[in-house]
């Protein structure tokens, strides 16, 4: 288990480092083509501010989008007993509990840090999983909270937003002043034209590459939460069995959408049975997750 957790952390940090290199490269291209660092700094700061506000209020927005309702301990002592026990094992404050009235089994965690964390489950999850399976799911979500995955993915969102912003800026500059700018840059020498070519490639490929890296980081964090959750319960089969049941359940989760799909323990919108789906998915293959859990 510890080896799996360490490997997933290393892969996540490598992908994050690669993300930063992309932004640094695009930033240099913009500065070189415009020969002015002011607008680059202005839009970069604007992107960070916008994502900061989204980060501050994302948890309440997600709960409203999901039609989740808070539940007190007296209303559902069974759920609270599981959450409290695993919070003690994880060494973090007990998250608040929310329930979505939907028969499809699923769950997610939100909140920017352990003190403000929320674990949300569907009524279907409580009805269709046994105690050990429910503990596996809650342990997975508890691990997301303990590992600061929500904050981590918000940082990734800032980076993706910055890359898209820079790419859009470059694209518009070529549309509205590409000819004049190309002639101006060409006066700096033949090597300068290479930067123009790189800028064109960046406009086309950078947003796609950024999205692929974002999905890859998200998948690594799911593997990490699986391994961390198994360490909390000391029973990987509980989570493996729960993932199998959730994946095979045919009832659609009515409140799920593209904005919230990445939060759930199993993607409620699509299946992951092909290489293309895996590349553009926020979740790794459920079969692979189960295989890794059962090999621990």
What does this structure look like?
This protein has 296 residues and is mostly helical. It has two domains: 2-58 and 152-199, no CATH class; 62-149 and 219-294, Zincin-like (2-Layer Sandwich), CATH 3.30.2010.10. Helices cover 70% and strands 5% of the residues. The protein has ten helices and four strands. The chain has helices at residues 2-34, 38-65, 77-90, 123-128, 131-146, 149-186, 190-233, 236-248, 275-279, 286-294; strands at residues 69-70, 96-100, 107-110, 118-122. The chain has a four-stranded mixed beta sheet, sandwiched between helices. β3 (107-110) and β4 form a beta hairpin. α1 runs parallel beside α6. The model has no long low-confidence stretch (mean pLDDT 80).
> What Rg is obtained from the alpha carbons, in whole angstroms?
22 Å
Main beta-sheet strand count, sense and barrel state:
4 strands, mixed
- Overall CATH class of the largest domain: Alpha Beta
Mean of residue pLDDT values: 80
* General shape: elongated
Number of helices: 10
The CATH architecture name of the largest domain reads 2-Layer Sandwich
Which blocks of ≥5 consecutive residues have pLDDT under 50? none
Structural class: mainly alpha
Q: Largest beta sheet: what is the strand line-up?
A: 1-2-4-3
């Amino acid at each position: 288990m510890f080896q799996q957790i360490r490997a997933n952390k290393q892969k996540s940090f490598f992908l994050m480092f690669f993300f930063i290199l992309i932004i640094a490269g695009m930033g240099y291209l913009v500065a070189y083509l415009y020969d002015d660092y002011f607008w680059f700094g202005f839009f970069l700061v604007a992107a960070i501010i916008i994502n900061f506000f989204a980060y501050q209020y994302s948890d309440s927005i997600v709960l409203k989008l999901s039609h989740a309702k808070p539940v007190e301990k007296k209303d559902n002592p069974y759920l609270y007993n599981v959450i409290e026990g695993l919070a003690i094992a994880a060494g973090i404050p007990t998250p608040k509990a929310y329930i979505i009235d939907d028969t499809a089994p699923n769950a997610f965690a939100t909140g920017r840090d352990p003190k403000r964390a929320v674990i949300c489950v569907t009524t279907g999850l409580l009805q269709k999983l046994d105690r050990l399976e429910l503990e596996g799911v809650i342990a997975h979500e508890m691990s997301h909270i303990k590992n600061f995955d929500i904050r981590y993915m918000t940082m990734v969102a800032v980076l993706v937003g910055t890359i898209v912003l820079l790419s859009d800026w470059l694209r518009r500059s070529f549309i509205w002043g590409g000819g004049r700018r190309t002639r101006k840059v060409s006066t700096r020498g033949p090597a300068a034209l290479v930067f123009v070519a790189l800028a064109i490639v960046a406009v086309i490929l950078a947003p796609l590459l950024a999205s692929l890296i974002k999905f890859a980081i998200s998948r690594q964090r799911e593997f990490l939460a699986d391994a961390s959750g198994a360490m909390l319960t000391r029973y990987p089969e509980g989570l493996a069995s729960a993932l199998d049941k959730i994946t095979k359940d045919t009832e659609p989760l009515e409140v799920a959408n593209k904005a919230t799909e990445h939060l759930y323990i199993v993607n409620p919108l699509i299946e992951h049975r092909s290489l293309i789906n895996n590349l553009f998915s926020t979740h790794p293959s459920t079969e692979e997750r189960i295989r890794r859990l059962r090999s621990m």
